[in-house]
Write a structure and sequence with these properties.
single chain, 117 residues, mainly alpha, 4 helices
Length: 117
Amino acid sequence: MALFVCYLVTKIFGDSVYQILNVIVPEAINEAWVKYIKFAIYVVGISGGVRVWEIEKYITSQIRGREVVPLTMERWTLEIYRTLIGSLKSIATVLLVFFVFTLIAYLVLKVFNAKRS
């Protein structure tokens, strides 16, 4: 589920990231930066959506002598919801940081170009 969310977000925001980087970064390294941003979206999205410590409670008991938490349909629904929200939250953070830094870079470039003129 987290992988699908990352794929969907990279498809939705891929063109925007490319166009923004096209303005700021020279064309020679633009493609590499786009690939890196997509990679960062996948890494952060999957790690934010898949919480191994939460899944572990369905496999092992946290207290000796207690039963393992049963994985019912309601719990499946809850875990899928948590995965979606966790992935989207992590990806939103990465994209926010990216857009803030590119905005700063754009403003700096605009100031330097204004001073040159």
